[in-house]
Write the structure tokens for this entry.
Amino acid sequence: MDYMCAKRVSIVDSERCVGCQLCMFACTRRLGYGGLGLSAILVKSTGGIERGLTVIVCRACPSPPCQKVCPTGALTAREGGGVRLNPDKCIGCGHCRDACPFGAIFWNYELNKPIVCLYCGYCVNYCPYKILAFEEVGK
Amino acid sequence: MYGKVLHIDLSRKRSWVDDESELFINRIGGVGVGIKLLEEELPKGVDPLDPENVIVFTVGPLTGLYPMASKTIALFKSPLTGNLGESHAGGRSAIAIKSAGYEAIVVKGASETPIYVAVHGEKVFFRDASGLWGVGSSLTVGRVIREREPGAGIRSIMRIGVAGEKLVRYACVTTETYRHFGRLGLGAVFGSKKLKALVVSGAGVIQVKDVKLYRTLYDEIFNATTRTAIMRKYHDIGTSMNVSPLNEIGGLPTRNLKEAKFEGAEKISGDFLAENYLGRRVACSHCPVACIHLAALREPYEDEPYFYKTTMISYDYELIYALGSLLGISNTEGMLRLFHEVEVLGTDAISTGVLLAWMTEVFEKGLISETETAGLKPKWGDWKTYLKSMRFLVEQPTEFYRDLSMGVAYASNKYGGSDYALSFGGNEMPGYHTGPVAHIGFLTGARHSHLDSAGYSLDQKLLKEDRKPSVEEVVDYLLEEEAWRQILSSLVVCFFARGIYSPTLVVDALKSVGYEFSPTELAKLGLDILRDKNRFKLREGFRIGDLKPAKRIYETASPLGCIDDEFIGKAVNLFYARMGI
Ligand code: SF4
Ligand code: SF4
Ligand code: SF4
């Protein structure tokens, strides 16, 4: 992929987020399911809804810590930032999840494998309050 | 599998799962299934605060799939009315139950010591809650459990405040800080079972029968909820936008409904709150509308200059009515503090307001004195005294407050003042004095709530058209509305989305998950569910002949003029005759 074209989901202003989780539902729906179980984006409160909300999604680090700790090479660095997962190589050790400082690697308990953002931007279309943007890494 | 029911027995600290898929296929889910489970599980005639009372939580086939299918239904025997207890709440409760892999959770028995139950997917944990019992603020309880349990962002924490522990018959269960199983006393049932909280989380996904239809329909509903005018009302100002129009037409119950127009309405109106206090907007999971409006109240510390605290307080039309106009309060910040206190204590705001209003009037008329009120002198508009009385309602320092904890119908039977005790079938009155239809709806609605059949909306239509309805028209309207709402609460869709979820859309949405229902079949099922609910009420001792509304509703003119008790009586009788009970 062309370096300049690598995109990611960025958080424009989480202060305005209402916690509707439509972004999370979109992420699982993109795979043909309802619910939230396969979502690579999480919206949770910062110590109770009364204190506001925070949105967690992979920020496509240029030098991803998750990839560095992967013992099998299942995670490879994507050109331009972020990672790609090859589930066949993944042994479910969970190191990547521990290494991400944002908690942006989620877990598929059924398969015992990480859930990693695909940088598809689908979720962005369903945020009613323009909290999310799909833009080039580094912007 | 669709139709998994988790049973939790608090006495034996055991849990198991039943397959009820057939029941769910025939009765959709939500209230349709819930009323059957309740009928089956609840021993006839049991005391609502006995361990044998049963709580049924249900979600439906659209939960987790479509926008605004965001509610959970709770069914139980009500300690307030002694018959059907039903309340609905959103937050993250519905998606959490579904993601944990269930369509229903049935709670029965009682623990000997305080506990809370945590359901994480297949695993059920019974955790000690002795330390949490008696904690003064339900907000603290939420905070503590949040720290201890996994599942941040995808869990629901349904908990009670001190009111539930003290068995106040109109105590509520709070979820995600600002949503409530408010009416009819679920909080007291939790309290009687020594159940401080129920935590639910899970990471399951939901299978869809027809993925293509699902995605198309999803976008259609999403666009309708976000890009059309249908949801505007709830979106912009929230339900509090009703304050001014209701006041203008003279349908806003004021000072215990001695009047229906409030001179101080401006300061408690939705516009005023939005302009001066609105601090944040919040949504239930899967709801793009975000109708939850939070006011930011900034208060100075009296003992320390330049120290302030800012509290986020949720407001809604019903709260403004019950703890605002009904108490003659026009001090915005005073009213907001009452809203916060009701949240801290965990009582239903409507019942609380109606009780305080009645208490003010019996005090005014000399039926009670400071001996009964433990030294308080309740007075219209005096929010500071109301703040103290709210605590007393829960702490019950005198026999009078113990009687108040039973509800306004009970208290007025003992102390007098029944003529202005605003109660319908044992449930305290919602905030609509719009005309006869609203009151007929409160009387005939299975929950005696404004949400059963929305009579106020026909009243407002009649006012615009400047005409009087016939008894038949009123009954047809209420019956049709309440029956259709049984379908919405079986799916389970938020009533605020009723303009979007038309019968044809519901048929399609059900199709996408493998259900075949025609609009006629849905209409029939709605009526069946309503009949079941009313049959359950009769089984538990409800008598149509006992439905006697307070004289006050006839004395204070409504926007449609003085309400005629004969008209009301005829409509009520015809309603139940039509229902065939
Ligand atoms: S998962 Fe975390 S560490 Fe890895 S690329 Fe994304 S943000 Fe960076
Ligand atoms: S960009 Fe795609 S994979 Fe990543 S969170 Fe959004 S929908 Fe999910
Ligand atoms: S869709 Fe937007 S507003 Fe809703 S939870 Fe996600 S980021 Fe927040």
Notes: The interface with chain B takes residues 18-22, 25, 28-29, 32-38, 42-45, 47-52, 107, 109, 126, 128-129 of chain A (CB under 8 Å). The first strand of chain A starts at residue 7 and ends at 11.
